[in-house]
Input
Amino acid sequence: MAQEAATIDVYLPPIAKLSGPETSARPDPLRWLRQNTIADVDGMPQQYQESLLESRPKAAFIALVRNSEVEEMVYSMIQLEARFNNRSTHQYDWIFFNDEEFSSEFMSAVRDATNSQCYFEIIPEEHWSVPSWIDTTRFDVGRQFMGSIGVGKAWLQSYHHMCRWNAGLFAREKRLAFYEFFWRVEPGVDFSCNINYDVFRFMRDNNMAYGFNMAILDDARSFPSLWDRTKMFIKNNKNMIHEDADYDWLLQEPFHGNGISRPTIDDDTRDFDRLEYNNCQFYSNFEVGSLAFFRSEEHRAYFEHLDRTGGFYYERFGDAPIHTLSVSLFLPKSRIWYFRDIGYAHGLCEQCPPHQVRLTADPESQQQPQARAVFINESLSKKHRRWEAMSQDVIRQGGIPGLACGCTVSAIDHNNAKLVPFESKQQKPEHPCIRLYLGGKWLEKRADWDPEAEIAAGRDGSGGYLLDGLESNPFLRSDSNEPK
Output
């Protein structure tokens, strides 16, 4: 019988070091991915495909977009449809938001880009206007000043409306009342890898409330009072902070003149009057989230507290740092997921996960922790039988298959300083933001690493890590198929 090597990328997503007690009842997202990553849906029995379609989560893609951005929106949709949503088991709705009527040209173009249902919503005026408690003169002076010193788009009134809407108001839109999960999609972005599992089902089945795929450093000039306002909220609402929340990764020692912060945080003593926000954020231009969370008492109270301070207008409070602080304060870390396997790019910020174009089954490759190959008998005539055999072998290997990407792999901290370059005088944390979030082994450095020599060579001194994030499975032992 003829045989061929079935080429499968084996990948293990980076898992954050969790705080709080370990329980056997906690979902196992890696096991779920091994069992539900399917490279070829068409090879599954039709009845099973129909059952998956009927049991889909109540979820939708949402986009805040203008009529003039129709080409960029279609560009994003075509890729996400091809990489994910055009599967017969998915076909999730698209919901478009605008502060004005959508043109017939826009609606026709986006409908042609998908087989799914499209909805077009006008944001109510109370969600897209300067609130009554804002001093408009102070707002005008402030935004012109921030624009003059280079704070991105701070001079645009509509940009302030956008940040405020995305920070909290979006979840209150009537159209979204039917849905449980959302996936935010921006115009003009790239999705460079096939997504061979149902992202929304993953969120639901594993009790996830928030998903991201980049953590970067933000421009502190955008929100100078955000942390003080947040500290005030924490002090007045201690009962809202989740008992297993992990927000130490967002805290640092005050600036002492060397430009690099090296925090010394005692897990049992969180001195908010002494420590400062390190300006790390989840890059919210890509995010998958629970609408129940963003409608929760905790998030609503935090958002309304910040809104009443005027920070969306007197400064440029962004939705990204607010979402980051909110999920880190009000959720356990086990309900936040790093979608490193979703290749994504938006302007300067991009990330491409580890992947192999083609793997071989020779003995040498069998010793590589990055990959394994599976032999499949071609006499299996039904595709679903082939898929079952492959999936069982992948489960045995301890890896997750299915990364087919059209991008060059980037290191895990590739995006850390894209918005805040090394030359900026802004205080910077000792480690890149994503490493602070992941913790554990991701913070370990080589014994021979010399930061002074690296800085002398013109770099920022943040290198020397044992793990660079280019490995498909950095924790797989060479003598075992089981993760460390």
Observations:
- The chain has 16 helices and 18 strands.
- The first helix runs from residue 29 to 36.
